[in-house]
Write a structure and sequence with these properties.
Layout: H1 13-27, H2 32-39, H3 43-50, H4 58-68, H5 77-85, H6 93-100, E1 105-110, H7 121-133, H8 139-155, E2 163-169, H9 170-174, H10 180-194, E3 199-204, E4 218-222, E5 228-233, E6 238-241, H11 244-260, H12 264-275
Parallel strand pairs: 1-2, 2-3
Antiparallel strand pairs: 1-4, 4-5, 5-6
Helix pairs in contact: 1-5, 2-3, 4-5, 7-8, 10-12
Amino acid sequence: MVNRKELDPNSSPEAAYGAHMRRLRERRGWSQEDLGERLGYSSQHISAVETARKPPTLPFSSKLDVVFGTAGSADSFEREWREIRHGVLLEGFPEYVGYENRAVEIRLYNVGIIPGLLQTPEYARVLAGAAVQRGAITPEQAAERVAFLAERQAALERSQPPMVFVTMDESCIRRPVGGPDVMDAQLARLRDFAELPNTLLQVAPYEIGERRTFDLPVNLLTMPDRSVICYAESQAQGHLDRDSASVLPMLTAYHQLQGEALSPATSMAMISKLRKGTP
C-alpha cells in the first residue's frame, strides 16, 4: 500500500485506538474510503484518526461500534474512547462521576485545595497547569481535565439539584493558588455557592486538631434509593466503595466532622475576612 504509515500502538492510547481501527478495517478488506462511506466521514478523517493525528470523538466511536459490531464488547471503541478521555483521572473516579450525576445528596470533604465542584475555571486551570509543569500530565490532558470538571459542574444544574454538603479543611481556603486575583474570585465563588438553597458549606478549622475525622479527601453520595456510595482517594489512586458495612461508618465520621466544624455563618465570616486580607 502506498504511503502506509506504520503504527506503534504502544506509543499512546490514541495510537492504540488507531491501530485497533485499522486492524478491524483491513480484516474486512475495506479501504479508508470504504470505511468513511459507512461512517459518514471523509477518508482523510479516517486516516487522521488511524495515525493518531486527530483524536477520536464519542459520536465517531459509537458509529465505529455499529459498523464493526463491537458495541458492548471488550473491543468496543466507545469503551476505548472513554479510557482515553479519562486517562488522567484516578482509578474509580469516572465510575464515581456516573453516580454523582444521579445522587440526591452529595457530601464532600477536602484538604489543601477547593473541592472540584466548587472550583472556578481559573483556579482549575492553575492546578492543571502546575501538573503540566511537573510533567505529571500533558497540556492536552490538562485542558481535558478542566473541561471534564466543567461538565461535572454543569451536570448538577438540573431541575431538582442534589443537596450538597461541603466541609473543607481550613487549608483549602488559606492555601494561595494562582495569585490574589484567582483566589479572590475563588473565595467569591464559595460565597455564591453557600447562598444557594440546596447547599451547606462549613470550614473545619485547624484548632479541631486530632478531632478531624478524615486525613484524605472523601466523597459520599446518597442515591435515590437511599443507598450510600463512598469515594476516597490518595495521591496515587482512588477507591469506590458501595459496601454498606464499610460506607456507613464513613457517613458517621462525616457527621462527626460537621459537628466539629464551624457553623455555616462563621465559616463564611472566615472566608470574608480572607477576601479582605485580614487573618
